[in-house]
Amino acid sequence: MTNEFDLIARYFSRPAPAAYLGVGDDCALMPPAPGMELAASTDLLIEGRHFFSNAEPRALGHKALAVNLSDLAAMGARPVACLLGLSLPELRPDWLEAFADGYYALADAAGCPLVGGDTTRSPSCIVISVTVLGHVPVGQALRRDAAREGDDIWVSGTLGAADIALRLLAGELPPDPQLLAATRAALERPEPPLELGAALAGVAHAALDISDGLLQDLGHILKASACGAQLDYASLPVAEALAGLPQALQRQAVLGGGDVYQLCFTAAAARRDEILALARRCGSRVSRIGCITAGPGALQVLDEGGRPIAPLPAGFDHFN
Amino acid sequence: MTNEFDLIARYFSRPAPAAYLGVGDDCALMPPAPGMELAASTDLLIEGRHFFSNAEPRALGHKALAVNLSDLAAMGARPVACLLGLSLPELRPDWLEAFADGYYALADAAGCPLVGGDTTRSPSCIVISVTVLGHVPVGQALRRDAAREGDDIWVSGTLGAADIALRLLAGELPPDPQLLAATRAALERPEPPLELGAALAGVAHAALDISDGLLQDLGHILKASACGAQLDYASLPVAEALAGLPQALQRQAVLGGGDVYQLCFTAAAARRDEILALARRCGSRVSRIGCITAGPGALQVLDEGGRPIAPLPAGFDHFN
């Protein structure tokens, strides 16, 4: 019995590549990939929790996929396919079309075809579930437990803009249309560095995406790898839009702000030139921000004068 | 920053098999499988829509995975791994523990380790998202578009019990504790025929699971394969518990009732003995219920006297 919610599915049934079996059967099918490990990640995005109810649907479609692609990049994996679960309290064709457009535009750009999904009515809020699948050559994945003492610590992109946009939209900062205009894309249309991530497989050691904030996420590497870290604040790639803001707010946004969807990774010092060259090839900015130390769990951030910043932004002192 | 919802994740971080990288990194990793196509399916289950708010959490954990494993069985794929997204309005450790127990018990039995996931707070209802991954030998998947004129039509298991249980629980039928006791397990603890599904790969033609009801689901095969079907009602495996019910209710439950999570499949008549033998080996009951005909979209169900049942249960006449 075709019902209105089967109709939703029509927005998400563009054909998959010829080698795949896409939307419409019990499962999607993808061809074998000899020598490749399969990487998989899933995320739930809930209205009112992960995005505002009035979020622009095209940007939301983009971001729902982007945050998952970011997990593939952080593993050094290239995208293979994605699956989308979507539950909506009401049918709004204009909303659906814009969401699907944003989603497909990124899926096409990333080479990550939508091959399966599920659409249902939700009794209350919008629920988006995305699962991404990717390939990484056997043994080359960028795992959190692979950092080594003496490794350089790098980040891609810039830091802080998404956090400022979030604070502006949440009313935590006084309205500032110019600042919002300069930071909003970082929050709403993140562009995970997929080429860079794949190029780092087999070159870098540990990596993850900065979805929860630099210090918190770097803390995951330190814990999994049983080592410490020292960062130089002056070397951090602060987003330009933050230039005029008070120092404490800048530091909070740069060190603690999440939703970045760029990579933090570690690599042997001997590979510096190689990493700079491959980042250039991939069109990604990378910055060397510190080094991995022996002390398990110890995390220091030195200010411009070489003195440890203390206390670190709220909530991060427990890594010390 | 560890928060209460990170603690939820601890209920779902049992170790994955040694060849896998499980929960705890940006992605899960699984080893290559030469000669195998990758099958993937995802489902969203929303409180108040797919399950009652007072659903027993152990049974819910079981069912959330079972309905997805059923999609793998219907493709002829063997389970490889699963990912779980869980969003809850409140933290109830007893609920979580029972849900996780039910989920893991089936995951273990099915050889489908949980390798990744996402847990978050939901502003309102419980949301469960499950993605399953499986392998099927290249070219042997059981696709909906593979039925051929003259094929036998088979179903596994029995039909109708889940629908009766659902009607009892929803108050559509007068309370009948004995009938509920006899039908409830079919609704709440479905056991998808994984061994049978995998054994049918390369033997059967088309297959799907009967999640939406026999006629509706068979209709998907007929549409995808551009053919018709004739069923003999007398050959349908009606669940024993339905024996005393009025004929019209029985027919509605058997032909239209969903939530069955058994297979409907087609195969060449020459393979009857082989199919009966492999079903016996797999411990599955299979029944031959009709045949595929030429007429695209035509779907007839003959009664015990060989006359077409008309009208078919509400909502199914549009296949004719």
Automatic annotation (TrEMBL), chains A, B:
<feature type="binding site">
    <location>
        <position position="43"/>
    </location>
    <ligand>
        <name>Mg(2+) 1</name>
    </ligand>
</feature>
<keyword id="KW-0547">Nucleotide-binding</keyword>
<feature type="domain" description="PurM-like C-terminal">
    <location>
        <begin position="149"/>
        <end position="296"/>
    </location>
</feature>
<comment type="pathway">
    <text>Cofactor biosynthesis; thiamine diphosphate biosynthesis; thiamine diphosphate from thiamine phosphate: step 1/1.</text>
</comment>
<feature type="binding site">
    <location>
        <position position="71"/>
    </location>
    <ligand>
        <name>Mg(2+) 3</name>
    </ligand>
</feature>
<dbReference type="Pfam" id="PF00586">
    <property type="entry name" value="AIRS"/>
</dbReference>
<protein>
    <recommendedName>
        <fullName>Thiamine-monophosphate kinase</fullName>
        <ecNumber>2.7.4.16</ecNumber>
    </recommendedName>
</protein>
<feature type="binding site">
    <location>
        <position position="259"/>
    </location>
    <ligand>
        <name>substrate</name>
    </ligand>
</feature>
<feature type="domain" description="PurM-like N-terminal">
    <location>
        <begin position="24"/>
        <end position="136"/>
    </location>
</feature>
<feature type="binding site">
    <location>
        <position position="316"/>
    </location>
    <ligand>
        <name>substrate</name>
    </ligand>
</feature>
<dbReference type="InterPro" id="IPR016188">
    <property type="entry name" value="PurM-like_N"/>
</dbReference>
<feature type="binding site">
    <location>
        <position position="42"/>
    </location>
    <ligand>
        <name>Mg(2+) 1</name>
    </ligand>
</feature>
<feature type="binding site">
    <location>
        <position position="43"/>
    </location>
    <ligand>
        <name>Mg(2+) 2</name>
    </ligand>
</feature>
<comment type="function">
    <text>Catalyzes the ATP-dependent phosphorylation of thiamine-monophosphate (TMP) to form thiamine-pyrophosphate (TPP), the active form of vitamin B1.</text>
</comment>
<feature type="binding site">
    <location>
        <position position="50"/>
    </location>
    <ligand>
        <name>substrate</name>
    </ligand>
</feature>
<feature type="binding site">
    <location>
        <position position="26"/>
    </location>
    <ligand>
        <name>Mg(2+) 3</name>
    </ligand>
</feature>
<keyword id="KW-0479">Metal-binding</keyword>
<feature type="binding site">
    <location>
        <position position="118"/>
    </location>
    <ligand>
        <name>Mg(2+) 1</name>
    </ligand>
</feature>
<dbReference type="InterPro" id="IPR036676">
    <property type="entry name" value="PurM-like_C_sf"/>
</dbReference>
<dbReference type="Pfam" id="PF02769">
    <property type="entry name" value="AIRS_C"/>
</dbReference>
<dbReference type="InterPro" id="IPR010918">
    <property type="entry name" value="PurM-like_C_dom"/>
</dbReference>
<keyword id="KW-0784">Thiamine biosynthesis</keyword>
<feature type="binding site">
    <location>
        <position position="144"/>
    </location>
    <ligand>
        <name>ATP</name>
    </ligand>
</feature>
<feature type="binding site">
    <location>
        <position position="211"/>
    </location>
    <ligand>
        <name>ATP</name>
    </ligand>
</feature>
<dbReference type="InterPro" id="IPR006283">
    <property type="entry name" value="ThiL-like"/>
</dbReference>
<dbReference type="GO" id="GO:0009030">
    <property type="term" value="F:thiamine-phosphate kinase activity"/>
</dbReference>
<feature type="binding site">
    <location>
        <position position="209"/>
    </location>
    <ligand>
        <name>Mg(2+) 3</name>
    </ligand>
</feature>
<keyword id="KW-0067">ATP-binding</keyword>
<keyword id="KW-0460">Magnesium</keyword>
<dbReference type="InterPro" id="IPR036921">
    <property type="entry name" value="PurM-like_N_sf"/>
</dbReference>
<keyword id="KW-0808">Transferase</keyword>
<feature type="binding site">
    <location>
        <position position="212"/>
    </location>
    <ligand>
        <name>Mg(2+) 5</name>
    </ligand>
</feature>
<feature type="binding site">
    <location>
        <begin position="117"/>
        <end position="118"/>
    </location>
    <ligand>
        <name>ATP</name>
    </ligand>
</feature>
<feature type="binding site">
    <location>
        <position position="71"/>
    </location>
    <ligand>
        <name>Mg(2+) 4</name>
    </ligand>
</feature>
<feature type="binding site">
    <location>
        <position position="26"/>
    </location>
    <ligand>
        <name>Mg(2+) 4</name>
    </ligand>
</feature>
<feature type="binding site">
    <location>
        <position position="71"/>
    </location>
    <ligand>
        <name>Mg(2+) 2</name>
    </ligand>
</feature>
<feature type="binding site">
    <location>
        <position position="41"/>
    </location>
    <ligand>
        <name>Mg(2+) 4</name>
    </ligand>
</feature>
<keyword id="KW-0418">Kinase</keyword>
<comment type="similarity">
    <text>Belongs to the thiamine-monophosphate kinase family.</text>
</comment>
